[in-house]
Amino acid sequence: MKTLQYFTLVALAASFAGCATVAPTELVNARSAYQLASDGPAQQLEPAELHKAHEALILAENSFRKEPDSYRTKDLAYVAQRKSEQAGALGSIAAAKASKDGANADFQTKQSEIVEQGKKNLSDSEKRTTDAQAENARQAALKSAKDKADADSQMQQAAIAQGKMDLNAAEKRTAETQAELDKQAALKLAKEKADADSQLQQAEIAQGKKDLNDAEKRTADALADLASLASLKEEERGLVLTLSGSVLFRSAEATLLPQAQVKLDQVAKALLAIRARNLIIEGHTDSQGTEAYNQSLSQRRSDAVRDYLVQGGYPADHIQSRGKGEVSPIAKNTSTEGRANNRRVEIVIEREAQLSKK
């Protein structure tokens, strides 16, 4: 019933989303995994685990309906797939255990019947022995009473001893058979668990490789976007993105221009696509004015860029702001062009190795 309700919900969600929206592979896999688990023994033997998988899949479907292409939808779908697979595995294990318990009960019943039949056969044998002894006694009238009593006693003791030996042998065979059955069942269960763990580990490794490849592609695309927005070059300190000060600020001011906000929005979007790294925002000026004034102006400008990137969503604890003033020119301040080049803001993107050391 829950499975029917769920796929009815999926159909309704698909009709609202429209034919143009295609479910991601993760969600398709999650749906298949839940259907497989629902059709298996988990429905009867592990309903709680199946319910958890159902709830997780509903979350993924709701996210897909609202944000069909988001990473959150894929992540929720992956979690739902894993929970469905786990519920299916637990259901199979529970079914195997129930089957083993039933086989053990049948075996014990059969062995009890064998032991009881052995006792009955022993009793019948003793009766036949007594009858034979009586017949021999009647036919051996010439034998003395003492010889007859000794012979009867010896035969009876031998029969009892043999019966005990047979009973002990039967009990030993029963114990050995039970031990072998337990051993085979344990080996089978261990193999099934090892196979399930291996499949799960392989799936996790494959997903990890895919996530790494996706992250590397997003980083490469983001760096290409940054290179198209401003000058981007590799230096010992990291990747350095250079933004012209005239594009960002009016002369002698530290308030961002409207067109500067548009460019910084593009820069922030590209930076957020890269796995979080430390950024250093450096403000630079030309040599016009006093050194103290230029130092203050460069610091205020670098602070303005940092604050704007933080407002755009970049983690504040990963951004530093430094005013460099006029002390790090990249051109001579004797020409108009050289001074224009020196009036700049540099965004230094530290390497991942540098980030891990910190």
Structural key phrases:
358 residues, alpha+beta, 60s Ribosomal Protein L30, Chain: A, five-stranded mixed sheet, 11 helices, 73% helix, rod-shaped, disordered C terminus
Compose a concise summary of this entry.
Helix content is 73%, strand content 9%. It has 358 residues and is an alpha+beta fold.
Report on the structure:
The protein is of the alpha+beta class and 358 residues long. It is 73% helix and 9% strand. The protein has helices spanning 2-17, 25-39, 42-45, 47-66, 71-139, 145-229, 245-248, 258-272, 291-311, 336-342, 352-357; strands at residues 231-235, 238-244, 279-284, 319-325, 344-349. It has a five-stranded mixed β-sheet with strand order 1-2-5-3-4. Helix 4 (47-66) packs antiparallel against helix 5. The model is unreliable at 15-19 and 353-358 (pLDDT under 50).
Q: Kindly state the mean pLDDT as a whole number?
A: 84
Q: Strand order, main sheet: write it out.
A: 1-2-5-3-4
Low-confidence stretches: 15-19, 353-358
Please report the number of helical segments: 11
At the fourth CATH level, what is the homologous superfamily of one domain? OmpA-like domain
Distance between the termini: 54 Å
CATH class of one domain: Alpha Beta
Gyration radius from CA atoms, angstroms: 42 Å
Note the main sheet. 5 strands, mixed
Helix content: over 70%
Topology:
Layout: H1 2-17, H2 25-39, H3 42-45, H4 47-66, H5 71-139, H6 145-229, E1 231-235, E2 238-244, H7 245-248, H8 258-272, E3 279-284, H9 291-311, E4 319-325, H10 336-342, E5 344-349, H11 352-357
Parallel strand pairs: 3-4
Antiparallel strand pairs: 1-2, 2-5, 3-5
